[in-house]
Specification:
2 domains, 389 residues, 19 strands, binds 8-demethyl-8-dimethylamino-flavin-adenine-dinucleotide, FAD/NAD(P)-binding domain, 38% helix, alpha+beta, 8-stranded mixed β-sheet, binds P-hydroxybenzoic acid, D-Amino Acid Oxidase, Chain A, domain 2
């Protein structure tokens, strides 16, 4: 079999690319290691920047998002019982939208199926061959049977644990990594959100985040030790700890209930350079990871897809490969800024095991400065709503 682009990974990056290519008549096959239901069962991102929203519309899948997404004009930052709002709209004339990654992925799968585009699920042993030659191809197994697809290009959209990044010889790539000494324990509960806007809460007991999916579905996170397991945290223990970390005025209003999902995610900053090797292009979590504090992971994956899509479009429709050749450089320039913002938000709001009393004073002074300084708030707002592509 032959196609123009093989997309490895049927997560949001791979599906968005597939749908955008389809609008231009460019053929792609998506290979996904799991099933559609498994992919949709992963509860992840919740905040979409205007760039990703624009791409969803461009891909022809923005209708439900426009109808059901919740526009957020700002966010609350708290420290102990004190809190303040940063109004994105005032500073940038732009908002973000609360719409779960699950819904983004569902809309993309629905559109892919409606258009009859090829997706192979349950693929195993995916291997990339000849990415640095003119005979690139991908092999994979389904039910023990080996298949081969020849192609012009390969989009490595297979997340942090995928095969695409590993295919680039070690001597040709450089990896940059920071592992944080804590994780996030997250729960989803069918309860009304404690507040209309998100609350990013710093406290002496550690960080907490109050987020949501809709009027009766809340998403909450608390910073936890890396050694903690989900079994260590009963729902009751989670709610008690959350209440201790957010301002009392909010804690008193918190509606609790049974969790319908509970998971722990470690926090990591990671970038691999370059994001291209011959005919292979890395996109999204396959190339970079951010700690979730700035809500940048999915949004940065989307900007990669924008650059790759524009490159492939110019290559196929105008026989111009300049944009494709600039992919790695352009994507990385934006990635590093998202890395910086996520790292900064993480440092600002979390408790680190080795923090000295001086470090704590610095953290508090930085939050106080943010609270009182319009320019500092503007910098946060510009980064949060997403830097331009
Ligand atoms: P994904 O979502 O990991 O999808 C990769 C897909 O590739 C498949 N795969 C393979 N398929 C074929 N062959 C192989 N060998 C394969 N290996 C893997 C996998 O099964 C999977 O389906 O990567 P993608 O598409 O690049 O998307 C990235 C986003 O998922 C990620 O950046 C965000 O979820 C990060 N993130 C957030 N991002 C935001 O922009 N805003 C947020 O509010 C936000 N919150 C979060 C987050 C991530 C979190 N966790 C759990 C890490 C909150 C959390 C808690
Ligand atoms: C979420 O709703 O899952 C969420 C929101 C904001 C973040 C991270 C996660 O920074």
């Amino acid at each position: 079999m032959r196609t123009q682009v093989v997309i490895i990974g049927g997560g949001p990056s791979g599906l968005l690319l597939g749908q955008l290519l389809h609008t231009q008549g460019i053929e792609a096959v998506v290979l996904e290691r799991k099933t559609r239901d498994y992919v949709l069962g992963r509860i992840r991102a919740g905040i979409l920047e205007r760039g990703l929203i624009g791409l969803m519309h461009k891909a022809g899948v923005g209708e439900r998002l426009a109808r059901e997404g919740f526009v957020h004009d700002g966010t609350i930052i708290s420290y102990g019982d004190e809190d303040f709002t940063i109004n994105f709209k005032d500073h940038t004339n732009t908002s973000v939208v609360v719409y779960g990654q699950t819904e983004v992925t569902r809309d993309l799968y629905d559109a892919r199926e409606a258009a009859g585009l090829p997706t192979v699920f349950n693929t195993q042993e995916v291997q990339i061959h000849g990415a640095d030659t003119d005979s690139a191809h991908v092999t994979y197994q389904v039910n023990g049977e080996t298949h081969r697809i020849d192609c012009d290009f390969i989009a490595g959209c297979d997340g942090f644990h995928g095969v695409s990044r590993q295919t680039i010889p070690l001597g040709l790539r450089k990896e940059y990594e920071k592992v944080y000494p804590f994780g996030w324990l997250g729960i989803l509960s069918e309860t009304p959100p404690v507040n209309d806007e998100l609350i990013y809460a710093a406290s002496e007991r550690g960080f907490a985040l109050c987020s949501m999916r809709n009027q009766n579905l809340s998403r909450y996170y608390i910073q936890c030790a890396l050694t903690d397991t989900v079994e260590d945290w009963s729902d009751e223990a989670f709610w008690e700890e959350l209440k201790r970390r957010i301002p009392k005025s909010h804690a008193d209003k918190l509606v609790t209930g049974p969790s319908i999902e509970k998971s722990i995610a470690p926090l990591r900053s990671f970038v691999t350079e370059p994001m291209r090797w011959g005919r292979l292009f890395l996109c999204g979590d396959a190339a970079h990871i951010v700690p979730p504090t700035g809500a940048k992971g999915l949004n940065t994956a989307a900007s990669d897809i924008h650059y790759l899509f524009e490159g492939l479009k110019a290559h196929y429709l105008e026989s111009d490969s300049a944009a494709l050749d600039a992919y790695s450089e352009k994507a990385l320039a934006r990635v590093w800024k998202a890395e910086r913002f996520s790292w900064w938000m993480t440092k600002l709001l979390h408790r680190f095991p080795d923090q000295t009393e001086f470090d704590l004073k610095m953290q508090k002074a930085e939050i106080d400065f943010l609270r009182s300084n319009r320019e500092a708030q503007s910098v946060l707002a510009q980064n949060y709503i997403g830097l331009p592509y």
